[in-house]
Amino acid sequence: MYCVSVGASSGLRWVLLSLASIVAFVAVAADPADARTWRKKRSADSVIADARYADIVVDVNSGETLHEANAEGLRYPASLTKIMTLYLLFERLEAGKIKLDTPLKVSATAVEQAPSKLGLDAGDTIEVEDAIKALVTKSANDVAVVVAEALAGSEENFAKLMTRKARALAMKYTVYKNASGLPDEDQVTTARDQALLGIAIQERFPRYYRYFSTPNFSYRGHSMRNHNNLLGRIDGVDGIKTGYTRASGFNLVTSVRRGSRQIVAVVLGGKSSSKRDARMRELIETKIASASQRRTKTKLADADPITENNTKPTAPPPAAKHAAKPEAKSEKKPEPKKNVAVTTSTSPAPQLQPGSTDPIQPRLVKTFSVKAGATQTASLETIALSPSHAIGVSPSVNRAADENIDKGAPPSSPAGARSGALGVLTVKSQGAVQPGETAPV
């Protein structure tokens, strides 16, 4: 009797559990919306679980952050770097220094870049408009170097201009080391910085921003499709750029306009392009409805544009984590000392007046006659400082500022940065793709 009772009880429990499972399955199957929600949640959770992950959604009209996760954690930008490359190119176009049909010369250095690239030959030329389209669609690394060399003489000089421009746009933690986004452990950014850049480039250059919505590009008989899979598939998406390396994961900056609402969203560190795109779609659909319909924020302005007449460099990036010596906290840099040659007469040097604390400084003195004695003369000759040798930029850019930008590697992770800071990522190469590495796209 006892054995039979236990067996019956176990059998009953098994039957009840089976029925419960069947009911749950039928309920999910009967409601496709619930099933889709469950699948989306699982996909989003899988993306966010990656230590490299970060995102942000910003309301362009109000400047309000509608959503963020690890928004100030240091990450690798990959080909999002080319947004800044294009920013400086658009700046030069707007200033009339170059035109859309200006030919840019292709160097051997540009040809040697790792894919993705257009496949140019040394000695070739490519017009500016074709270069823009190649960067937007193909994300061509060789073209990025062509642009850098044309605007600054070398990619190294151009990277300094990129970092200076980032600081002028209030991108606090971004440091650029090349124009393409190819792996470099010192080239870092944050989701918030990329959102600022995504807003700034379209507000500053509405005439040229339209290139980011180019669906495809044909060059010398070859057609290339834009890597941004959301263009033409999600209502209101008008750009702007994708990026990928093994260290960065899959990155995307997206701008969306629906009616009078506009947002810029950033996803960094996706596990795959499909998961990154799914996460971006989710952020857009859940956040744009809460965006403001009225403009209340002043448009982002370039605080310190790099022009022919501008000689004042912006503040250097925050102290780098690999810096051997801490940088001075003051952002105000001392003026460079000028070499001055002074010729004076044999008359005694001027003396301080009693109680004066003013230092003695050389002054220009006119020649004059004194009836009571011989003529006394004094002259002052200033030796000019040598200008910077950057091509197409201000000839008086402070070399000391360039060295300050060069000194450190990436800035330290900002206060409050959560898991997934740069320390958990490793990149052994600088400027070259390691075996198995996929170049930025």
Low-confidence stretches: 1-6, 26-30, 307-360, 373-409, 415-438
Count of DSSP strands: 11
Radius of gyration: 30 Å
Strand order of the largest sheet: 2-1-9-8-7
Helix content: 25-40%
> Helical stretch count?
11
In N-to-C order, the SSE pattern is HHEEHEHEHHHHHEEEEEHEEH
Specify the overall morphology.
globular
Q: Structural class of the secondary structure composition?
A: alpha+beta
% residues in beta strands: 5-15%
Search tags:
441 residues; two-stranded antiparallel sheet; 11 strands; disordered N terminus
Could you please describe the fold and organization of this structure?
- With about 450 residues, this protein is α+β, with helices and mostly antiparallel strands.
- About 30% of the residues lie in helices and about 15% in strands.
- Helix 2 (about 30-50) crosses helix 10 (about 275-285).
- The termini are far apart.
- About 40% of the residues are buried.
- Residues about 1-5, about 25-30, about 305-360, about 375-410 and about 415-440 have low confidence and may be disordered.
Describe the structure concisely for a colleague.
Helix content is 32%, strand content 14%. The protein has 441 residues and is an alpha+beta fold.
Helices and strands in order:
Layout: H1 2-30, H2 32-48, E1 54-59, E2 65-69, H3 81-94, E3 103-105, H4 108-111, E4 125-127, H5 128-138, H6 141-152, H7 155-168, H8 191-204, H9 206-209, E5 216-219, E6 222-225, E7 237-245, E8 249-258, E9 261-270, H10 273-287, E10 340-343, E11 379-382, H11 399-407
Antiparallel strand pairs: 1-2, 1-9, 3-4, 5-6, 7-8, 8-9, 10-11
Helix pairs in contact: 2-10, 3-6, 5-6, 6-7
